[in-house]
Amino acid sequence: MSTVPHLPVLRLGRNYESLEKFEVKDHKTGEVKALVSNVNAGIVRRDLAKIGSARAALKKFTCSQLIEMSAKAGEFFLNGTLPLGDQGHTQSAQQYIETLSCTSGLPWNMVQRNMAKVHFALTNMKFVLNGLSRGLDLGILDKGTGEQFGTKLSYFPTCNALGLVMPSNSPAVNSLWIPAISLKTPVVIKPGKEEPWTPYRLIQAFIAAGVPAEAFGFYPTDHEGAGEILKSTGRSLIFGDKNTMAQYANNPAIQLHGPGWSKFLIGDDCIENWRDYIDVIAGAISDNGGRSCINASAVVVPKYAAEIAAALAQKLGPFAPTRSDDPNARLSGFANIKMADFIDAQIDDGLKVPGATDVTAQYRNGPRKAIFEGGTYMRPTIVLCDSFVHPLANKEFLCPYASVVTCPQSEMLHKIGYTLAASVITKDQAFIEAVTDFAEIDRLNIGPVSTMKISWDQPHEGNMFEFLWQRRSIERAW
Amino acid sequence: MPIPTVAPELVAKAKAELDAHLREIISWHFSPETGCPYWLDWAGKNFDPRKEVTKTEDLLKFGHFADESLRDLQPEVWVPAQFKGKPYNIFETGGTTGMPKQRIGWNDYKVDYSEFSEKISDAHFPRGGAWLMMGPTGPRRLRLAIEHLANVRGSSCYFIDLDPRFVKKLITNKQFDVAKQYMAHVVDQATLILKNRKVTGLFTTPKLLEAIAEKVNLWDAGIRGVFCGGTSMKPQEVRFIIEELLENRIGFYPTYGNTLMGLAASVPLQPEDNYSVTYYAPQPRAILRVVNPDQTDETVAYDTWGRAELTTLTKEFFMPRFLERDEVIRRAPRPPYAWDGVGDVRPFGAMTKTIVEGVY
Prior knowledge:
- The complex is a heterodimer of chains A (478) and B (360).
- Chain A has 478 residues and is an alpha/beta fold.
- Chain A contains 18 helices and 24 strands.
- In chain A, the strands form six sheets. In chain A, strands 3-2-12-11-10-13-14 form a seven-stranded mixed beta sheet, with helices on both faces. A seven-stranded mixed beta sheet of chain A has the order 17-20-21-16-15-22-23, sandwiched between helices. A three-stranded mixed beta sheet of chain A has the order 1-5-4.
- In chain A, strand 10, helix 8 and strand 11 form a beta-alpha-beta unit.
- The longest helix of chain A is centred in the N-terminal third of the chain and has 17 residues.
- The termini of chain A are far apart.
- Chain B has a single domain, classed as Rossmann fold, CATH 3.40.50.12780.
- Chain B contains ten helices and 14 strands.
- In chain B, the strands form two sheets. In chain B, strands 4-3-5-6-7-8-9-14-13-12-10-11 form a twelve-stranded mixed beta sheet, with helices on both faces.
- In chain B, strand 10 and strand 11 form a beta hairpin.
């Protein structure tokens, strides 16, 4: 047995070793931690032509049975020792934490928090689906038709499978697809190049829990192969930057997960108490290493912007790289060093435009980009911007970064643009009504709630149940 | 079974034959009574190769062939005196933007493809069974060549045209939807032929092969042999074609070639090849050398990547040391070829930049 595990392609229940493989490496030492088979788009195309058998394999089970299996999978995922690849390797939970940490740059404590989120979603699937389906009796999906809420109901699946073009930045994003299994929908996953671990482990956990292996496709592939997944599954999720999002913006079959531009807005009525909110805002900026689309990247206030920026900078500026097993680790390393270089240069370029100050600089005692034990890190950056016009005012980076912008409350909703998660600190009913009606906010928190707070039974950039099942009208003569 | 090797004395014999052929071709192209205006003029301005080029190593005395001359000059300058007055075929290459390069010829393509016919099995391309070519026709040498190959084997050939210049433009302009429509248009026509006519042999490109295999089961449609060329094929893609599209039961013959060289056949794959295809130039009519891209007078070591350099040596056309736009692995001689081969052809610079290959 080779010392380096090999992750094969999973062709709907069948392991496949490609002649083409890529290496997943320790972000600090460059040590190869896995070889991953990579296939051409033709393989994906051919398998997707036969995806009906994958759906049929899931259809044999009721939703209720699949929910139970999901719960078992959650335990396997969190605590189990599961197969890793096709050469006899296994992976314990601790090995998963250590390996994912060293290849992705996430410290152990953040991997553990991500694991806990995925575990919660898996073990509370009934609760999650109850929320997403608004209390639908899922037995109706088993039979296709039924009666509930005093009316006849019939649902049909919208797709053959759920396609996923996954990112490498945050393992918890995998929790978005896991309801699909309980909803009898096979998944076809292109993993992120630096993070094949989580989807692979989740698939193994599901299989160990009794879900048929045919329900899972794991296809490390190229750009053309990713396109095939998006095109041929019928419904898919893609994660990417603004440019990626623009390519698929008008395709309702593709759910886009791009930059979140999540924000805090403080109303006129609460601004005098701004000191009370610094801890929650700082956490929303820096939790999970600032890597999530629901990390706050702007704080919009009617006044005291300089004071708020200084308070946040004083709190976050001293964050420095630590060992990955440090329980107090706050920063995440970059597996792709070019990305750190790019972010650093983008911020520096933005600061050359008058009207912005890097307030964190005075608390950092060193450069923003830091090298520690061979790893590359971006230390937190709080930028005070004089208006939304400034190029750094509404930016999102893969690190703890936020702007603090002065903006009259009456103009906030005209200026903020799309906001995945908005925490609006106000008790002003008129302002609350205005933000509630504002269509550009996807997830809304009222009061000092972190933008990072997730309610699994509520939609996140779209409702997975409605994405995968659609209601139809039905009349039966018998 | 280990990869077979060629005895040194056979390699030496092939080299001696190549040198003799080289001397004959040099003499032909640089003698006023047989040569063409372009090379006679060149010799007047440079040196007389008849005296200085007597073995293949001496080809280094030529610089790299400037292929712009195939685009910028009238075709007449390439007519050897002995062919004067005989109408010629004009074959084109490139031409996605601007004037294409042109090579003229009379019989070379027939010689190349008649020879190739001996390398394909009757089980895969039954004599008399019809062929279908789905690929570039128009001004390409390939159209006449494939028809000749079919005819040599007592077969006739159906043709579905594909304009690679148009496809490349579409891809360069990011008009992917139109490219897909065009590809579907081509594949639909081929599918129609396969459904309504008895066809046993198919020539096409890897991408079109995959597209047609999605529409019809090639074995059930009667196809027994596929002859493929035109683009690079990674080992994984070759494996995909053999295992999944051809289901390990239809014969597969990958080739490497172009208008300037002719046709380099591949040796039959063994398990030890791991689907890495090696091609051998139709020596002595053409020589493929694998050179260090930064120092092109150096040949790279065996099993090392380098850039392909082509020398064409026929009485119809002489072209010394043309640097191809491909990078390849230099492979050792392998029966029945007693000279170097080239493996895993891919566009030059494929590892560092995006290359538009289109469907051809």
